[in-house]
Amino acid sequence: MKHLLSTESLSAVDAVRILDTAEEMAAVGEREVKKLPALRGRTVVNLFFEDSTRTRISFEAAAKRLSADVINFAAKGSSVSKGESLKDTAQTLEAMSADAVVIRHWASGAPARLAASDWIDAAVINAGDGTHEHPTQALLDAFTLRRHWSRVAGRPSLGGDLAGLRIAIVGDVLHSRVARSNLWLLTTLGAEVTLVAPPTLLPVGIDSWPCRVSFDLDEVLATGPDAIMMLRVQGERMNAAFFPSTREYTRTWGFDDERLAALEASAGKDTIIMHPGPMNRGLEISSAAADSPRSTILAQVRNGVSVRMAVLYLLLSGDDSAQPTPAQEATV
Amino acid sequence: MSAPSSESPGSVFRTVLGNADIDRALTRIAHEILESNKGSEDLVLLGIPRRGFPLAQRLARKIARTDATVDPERMVGRLDVTMFRDDLRRHPTRPPGPTRLPPAGIDNKVVVLVDDVLYSGRTIRAALDAIVDVGRPRIVRLAVLVDRGHRELPIRADHVGKNLPTSSAEKVRVRISEIDSVDEVVIEGPA
C-alpha cells in the first residue's frame, strides 16, 4: 500500500483490511485517551483546492489521533491563487518533508497525477477529485453499512463483507464522485447497487457499470432495499438545466416525509437512510428523514474519523520499501 | 517472536518444554500470582496477542480452580500493542488487533501482563504504554512462559515459567494448542 487513489482499483481483501483496522480505531475513539502514538513524528498535509468542512476536519482529527503533525493548506489565500501550479505546490510540500498528502481537487485525476509524478515522495490520499472518486467516503459508508447490518444479524462485523445487501443510491449521480466510489466499493464487497436518478443526471456510459438503473424511486423503495443513500444535488457543478424545478425534483427524487412514512409502514425492515453531507434539507432529503432514527448521517461522520485513521495508519506506519510489487503500490 | 512453520532446512531443533512441562509451569505461575497478590482480589490478567492471550486464559482457569469465587472469563483481557511498538517503521504494515478489557476495567486493579516469550523487552515496553492509554492499574506485573535473556531494556518478569539461556542466533518457538494445535517450546538453532 502506497497510495489510496480510488476504490475502483481496491481489492476486496484490502478493503476488508481497512474496515477491520477501522474497527480497532473506532474502539480507540471510545476510550478516555483518544490518542495513539503510531504516527509520531510524521507529517500529514491536507491539500484542499476545493471547499470542504467534514472531510478536512475528519482527516485532521484522524491524523492528530495518530499523533501525526498536520498542516492544513487551503488553496484560497495561498500562492495557488497567485497562479502556482500543482507541481510547484507539491515540490514545496516535498521540501517540507510531508509523509502523506491528502488532496482534494476540482480536477478529476489530480491525485493520480500527483502519485504518478516524481514531484513528491509522500503517500497520496484522494479526498475527492472532480467527479471521479472519493474513496474514503465510500469506505466510511461501507463501514457504516457493515456495522449496522452485522448488528442486525447478530454477528461480529470483523472480517465480514457486504454480500447480499441491496443498496439504492439516489439523486445526482452525474456529478457525484461519492456515487462512483460507492458503486465500485460496494460491488467489490458483494452488495447489489441500484442507481436511481433522473435520466439527465446519469452519466454517459452507465450501461457498462456493474449496477441496475431505475428512474422510479417509489418502485425501488417498494422492493425494500437495505440502505438508501441520498446524494446531494450539486448546484455548484450544474451549468445547465437538469430538472425543471427544485419542487419537482423533491417530489420525484427526494426522500420526503411521504416516502419516510411509507418506509415506516413497511414494518420489520431495518433499512437505513444515508447521506454523505452536506445536506440540502428539503431538497433531496426532508428534515424528518434526516433526523429520523433510521438516519445514519451522524454515525457516518463519526465513522469517517475511524476509517481515515485506518487509511493513514495502513499507508504510513509500515516500511514501504519492503512492499513487494509496484503493481500493488499503484492501487492502494 | 515465535511464528510457527518458517523453519529453514539445515537447522537443529531441540524441544525444551513439552505438554506436561508447560502445564506444570503455568500451574506454578498461577499459584505464584495468587501468592504475591495475597488472593485473587482485584486481579486482572492481560494477554498480549497472539500467544499471550490463550496463556492468560489458561492461567485464569487455573486460578479459578484454586479460588472458586473467581470467574475466569471476567478476569482475562487481551491487550493489542501493535500501534505502540517502536519498530513499526522497520517492518511492513501490521494491522492492529482488538484490545478487550475485562468488564470491570483495569483502573485500580492488579494487572498481570502475560506473554509467551520475554526477549528484548520491547513488546513489554509497548504494552506498558498501551496500558497507560486504557486505564490506571494499581500495580502492573509480568508473567512469561519463557525468558530467553538478551534484554535491550531495563525490564524483568515477576513470574517466569522457564529461564532458557539461548544464543541470539537461536530462535525460540512457543506453540500453544489453541493456535498451533500442539503445546511445546522448541529452540531452533543453526546446525
In short:
Chain A has helices at 12-29, 54-65, 86-95, 110-116, 135-153, 177-188, 217-222, 246-253, 257-265, 287-290, 297-316, 326-331; strands spanning 43-48, 69-74, 100-105, 123-129, 166-170, 192-196, 212-214, 227-230, 272-274. Chain A has 332 residues and is α/β, with parallel strands linked by helices. In chain A, helix 2 (54-65) crosses helix 11 (297-316).
Q: Total helix count of chain A? A: 12
Low-pLDDT regions of chain B = 1-5
Strand arrangement across the biggest beta sheet of chain B: 3-2-4-5-6
| Share of residues in strands of chain B | 25-35%
Task: Provide structural commentary.
The complex is a heterodimer of chains A (332) and B (191). By secondary structure, chain A is α/β, with parallel strands linked by helices. Chain A is 39% helix and 14% strand. In chain A, the strands form two sheets. Chain A has a five-stranded parallel beta sheet. A four-stranded parallel beta sheet of chain A has the order 2-1-3-4, with helices on both faces. The longest helix of chain A has 20 residues, at 297-316. The model of chain A is unreliable at 322-332 (pLDDT under 50). Chain B has a single domain (11-85, 97-190), classed as Rossmann fold. Chain B is 29% helix and 26% strand. Chain B is built from five helices and eight strands. In chain B, helix 4 (122-134) links the parallel strand 4 (110-118) and strand 5 (139-147). The longest helix of chain B has 19 residues, at 19-37. Chain A binds chain B through residues 1, 17, 20-21, 23-25, 27, 31, 33, 35-38, 158, 313-315, 317-319, 322-323, and chain B through 80, 83-84, 88-99, 129, 132-134.
List keywords for this structure.
heterodimer; A: 332 residues; alpha/beta; Rossmann fold; 2 domains; five-stranded parallel sheet; four-stranded parallel sheet; 14% strand; disordered C terminus; B: 191 residues; three-stranded antiparallel sheet; 5 helices; globular
